Amino acid sequence: MNREYHVWYSPHLQRDMELLVFGHAGAKVLAFPTRCGRFHEYEDLGLTAALGEKIEQGHLQLYCVDSIDQESLYCFWNQPQDRLYRHQQYEDYLRHEVLPLMWNKNDHACVIALGCSFGAFHAINFAFRHPHCFSKVAAFSGRYDLTQAVEDFRDLFDGHYDEQVYFHTPSHFLSNADDQGLLEQLRRLDIVLAVGESDPFLHNTRQFSETLWSKGIWHALHVWQGRAHSASSWRKMVGLYV
Predict the structure, then answer these.
(1) How far apart, in whole angstroms, are the C-alpha atoms of residue 127 and residue 131?
(2) Is 192 helix (H, G, I), strand (E, B) or coil?
(3) Residue 68: CB partners within 8 Å, gap ≥ 6?
(4) What is the pLDDT of residues 180-218, one digit of tens each?
(5) Does 89 have pLDDT greater than 90?
(6) Total-model pTM
(7) CB neighbours (10 Å) of residue 202?
(8) Is-contact 127 95, C-beta < 8 A?
(9) How far apart are CA 123 and CA 30, in angstroms?
(10) Span 3-241: which CATH code?
(11) The pLDDT value given to residue 151
């Protein structure tokens, strides 16, 4: 399997950023790690191996990015506005640095956003804010409304709410979306959600699913037995849904 390590100084984040590329051809997959996860997480957890045959056969090419969650949305010593500002810089890094790298290396028309756990939020949020850049989104065990406290998972904005929170909460901005151009772009996406029946984010996922249906956005929602919030479940999910 082709494996490439890349590192460069990001002008948008003003620090070095690392990523791994697996494969040589096929649909390009932008793979987000779990909360505060690193660019080598998919390899460490066996998710790359679970997709090994598709990668070897040239059906998929993975671009596994680093997170900066500890500097942005999970940087709790910082003010919510500043956390979102840093997150926006991360999004700019993805749009203006990572996506161009993907297109320069591979001209396959299909681009997929993929994430597990908090990476599922990143995949959905990024793809829904920029649907023209993607053909598919696959999100597993995700939390799609960060303003809701769930079990031990706090409201990540500590009660703060502004335009930035609104536009980085897909279920919120979708509820009021009336731009038919945007909605048509979202309706052409192949959207796959998977979550465990005992996962703390099941209700959150169902709420997001209901919002999608209310806007005529077709998608698949798969509810797995048990919690299914683990690498062993995600290895099965990527094989089925990516």
Answers:
(1) 5
(2) strand
(3) 13, 86, 90
(4) 999 999 999 999 999 999 999 999 999 999 999 999 999
(5) yes
(6) 0.97
(7) 19
(8) no
(9) 8
(10) 3.40.50.1820
(11) 87
